[in-house]
Amino acid sequence: MPTPADISPASAEAVRTHVAAVAAHLNARLADVVAQMRTTLASRITELNNEPSLIELLGSSIEGNVDTILHALQHDIGGAGFEPPAAAIEYARRLAQWGVPVNALVRAYRLGQQFLLDRAFETSMSLAAPDPVRMEAHRVIVDSVFDYIDWISQRVVAVYETERESWLADRENARLDAVLDLLNGKGSVDVVERVTGYRLRGRHLAVVAWVGESAVRGDRMRRFTTTIRALAADVDSPAPPLVVGRDGATAWGWIQIPPNDTDLAVVLDRINTRPRTEDAPLLAAGAIGLDAAGFVTSHRQAQRAHHVAVLGGRGRTIERYDDPGLAVVDLCARDPSALQAWVLTVLGPQLAADTTHAERLRTTLRVYLACERSLSAAAAVMTMHKNSIRYRVDNAEKLLPRPLSDDRLAVEVALTACQWLGARILA
Questions:
Q1: Angle between the 131-170 and 9-28 helix axes, to the nearest 10 degrees?
Q2: Distance CA 62, CA 416 (A)
Q3: Taking the model in full, what pTM does it have?
């Protein structure tokens, strides 16, 4: 940790102690600092806020970098002891794969530097220290953070450039570009069919396939393709599906659906009852669409189902856009923090709690309302006695801040949001 040569040993030790205290205080609330920084960066840099999986990885990258900086400040570690956080390296790779401009990555580090320094100065001012010691500590913090950001920026930009070149060379440019043009309203049906070999006339089911961060690299496209082909077989598709890789953790697929009366919901729900391996891709499906317009619409719906699945983290093999409540939750969940606050207001702290008891009450009340407040119908759905349903419903209504009849719709939406997003929005 740099200090001027003319500062006394006692003062230098006081500076080191104050810097370490600031870092320790920030480290104690690391999760809050990371969450606030992620929200700030995602709102200030629009290119970083377009894909749920990128936003999640942004948080991991921030946590890795901030933790490294605070550890260095707290333990007086110089630049020679730094190692690039794995999440920061993977985030640079993923931005390159999505074609996010490199200047967005650089801006994220500069704005993150400013944010962390502001929090450090606020923390410093809350701690007792003589003014000369505080001023020198601020200089040390600024220099140390600047040196780290300069060092890590060079490395992540190099990773970005290497990955971008590799991705552009490896991916099937013509297939993906043709699909993207069609999705963006600029493409031609004939071009897509010719380039991809996939017929756009007919009924389509679009899916998004993805894997967790621990399984990003390696044979991802083979696993995506295998999973989507297996789904195509389950729905008796008459032709091979179209599968295109979108980034290192995500693929898009389209499956031709036969013109018979196959109950797609039953097929997909049956898939969710099968055991799955930990590294198997997860799927999000749109509704069936017709011709080129349906190809696009079903894809948009699959993306929305993917958004809810990533936020909720339920880990089901496949989520369906036309599952009751998913589309509404997707619209509400564009701002998870605001949704969490609203759910707490509507349901109250006890019913919105992340406990098994509260979950039982929420589920029973949600089913009861979906059954038009019929105790008998709810009992049949939940395979419980009618009196047990009445007992749980009465207890749930007692926990609501306002009578159910005052705003039943708000209560139903809040309960549905809890069903899909779980701990992400519970108190």
A1: 50
A2: 31
A3: 0.62
What's 80's DSSP letter? G
Is the model's pLDDT at 59 over the cut of 60?
yes
Q: Is 391 left (phi over 0), alpha (psi -120 to 50) or beta?
A: alpha
Question: Is 307 buried (19+), middle (13-18) or exposed (0-12) by CB count in 10 A?
Answer: buried
Q: Which CATH class is domain 202-323?
A: alpha beta
Which residues, in sequence order, are bridge partners of residue 255?
Answer: 205
Q: Taking a C-beta distance cutoff of 8 angstroms, is the pair 175, 196 a contact?
A: yes
Sign of CA dihedral 105, 108, 110, 113: negative
Q: What topology does CATH give the domain 9-170?
A: Globin-like (1.10.490)
Interatomic CA distance for residues 242 and 232, integer angstroms: 10
Nearest to 194 by CA among 242, 261, 248: 242
Helix, strand or coil for residue 279? coil
Element (H, E) at 319: strand 318-320
**Which H or E run contains 253?**
strand 250-257
DSSP letters spanning 341-366: HHHHHHHHHHHTSSSHHHHHHHHHHH
- Let me know: does 255 contact 227? Beta carbons within 8 Å: no
C-beta atoms surrounding 36 within 10 Å: 14
Domain boundaries, the chain: 9-170, 202-323, 331-424
Q: What is the pLDDT of residues 119-154, one digit of tens each?
A: 999 999 999 999 999 999 999 999 999 999 999 999
* pLDDT number for residue 171: 61
pLDDT computed for residue 46 by the predictor:
87
